[in-house]
Amino acid sequence: MKPSAYSCPCATPHGSLWNARRAFLLAASAVAATPVLAQVEVGDASSMRKLVPAETLENAATQQYDQLLAQAKAKGALAGANNPQLIRLRAIAAKIVPFTYAWNDRARGWKWEVNLIGSKQINAFCMPGGKIAFYTGILDQLKLTDDEVAMVMGHEMAHALREHSRERLAKTQATNIGISLGAALLGLGDVGRAAANLGSQLLTLKFSRNDESEADLVGLELAARAGFDPQASVTLWEKMGKATGSQQGMQFLSTHPSGPNRIHELQQNVPRVSGLYDKARQR
Predict the structure, then answer these.
(1) Catalytic residue among 58, 148, 156, 163
(2) Spatial distance between the Cα atoms of 53 and 121, rounded to a whole number of angstroms
(3) Does the annotation mark 156 as catalytic?
(4) Residue 245 — very low, low, confident or very high, per pLDDT cuts 50/70/90?
(5) How much is the pTM?
């Protein structure tokens, strides 16, 4: 099976960047050929998501992502390819992406992309289709280590892999359009057209508690398999909890609330993936 290419705007067929891209593809091929047994326990993805065609939502997400980048660039807030923080983010993503395929086969064909936006907002996201953005606020204000960045990134990737946005929008549109589950197939076209116009909602979509728990656990495993310390998931959310007292840039925490229950669940699951982390460090 052919792994997806890691879409990096600064990758050109020469020099160290090209060599890094080749190394990533080789690593992705090796990982893709290895059977993966999940160590964390999450339920089956909701069948409701099937009301929204995946490709439709991914296309809408890409359009919204491109608009966001264009707006950031116009304001001089889009990091250039040589920005050290962006290079750091892309290096972390390159380690994690090969392990996403086991959670969603569509991820093999996603054009993964990572960008950095200059803003005091404590925020980061991964849209359907693998479009990732970090805001400088989450890196600078929380002083995230590489391991903690990987936990944020893994968490956001997990939302996309588990298709939480697709499920949330499907439920919203099913309610708005007035279709019943029994008539889902008849309403598919209407929901699909509605989803194409919902790209702007993806940045403010609030996930359920179950969605957040799934993203925490899947993200924890993704990061551990990529060689990032799972204990960082706990320190990350401890920092998030302290940040709730801030008066600015709280977008991430408005859609991803922190709390002691979240930290406790992560603490319980760290031992499940510690072996994966140890194995990754030996590679």
Answers:
(1) 156
(2) 31
(3) yes
(4) low
(5) 0.77
